[in-house]
Amino acid sequence: MDDLLHLGDEWAPLFKLLGDPTRLKLLLAMHYRGPAEATVSELAELTGIKTATASAALKNMEAAGVISPVRDGREVRHRLVDDRIHELLHHLGGGHAH
Q1: Domain map of the chain by residue range?
Q2: Region for 73 from its dihedrals, namely left if φ exceeds 0, alpha if ψ lies in -120 to 50, beta otherwise
Q3: CA angle, 75 as apex, 69 and 79 as ends, to 5°?
Q4: What is the pLDDT of residues 29-86, one digit of tens each?
Q5: DSSP readout, 21-52?
Q6: CATH T-level fold of 20-91
Q7: What three-state secondary structure class fits 20?
Q8: Helix (H, G, I), strand (E, B), or coil: what is residue 55?
């Protein structure tokens, strides 16, 4: 039973993060693109979310360790780095572009 309780403690923050439609749309967009990283403006355009809203959501997901920023010159690209979220998005029906 302790293992189940630990599992609940481990997954609850991730489900809270995924429970927000903005964050879920951004994660699905990153997942769809595959390993390619995307800028906040690219993700905002793909999802129809305002850039400022997308930026705030990405910072929240970065703090949670779900995504990682990668500096590319002047741009910052974001990529999904949490394998648990990756697998879960597959179960939800989120595919890849390639």
Answers
A1: 20-91
A2: left
A3: 30
A4: 998 887 778 999 999 999 999 999 999 999 999 999 999 999 989 999 999 999 999 8
A5: HHHHHHHHHHHHHTT--EEHHHHHHHHT--HH
A6: Arc Repressor Mutant, subunit A (1.10.10)
A7: coil
A8: helix
Return the SS3 of 68.
strand
Half-sphere exposure of 63 (CA within 13 A, CB side): 9
The label of the residue with tokens 């949670």 reads 64
Which residues touch 20 (CB under 8 Å, ≥6 apart)? 57
Model confidence pLDDT, tens digit, residues 14-44: 899 999 999 999 999 998 887 778 999 999 9
- The rounded Cα 22 to chain-centroid distance in angstroms is 10
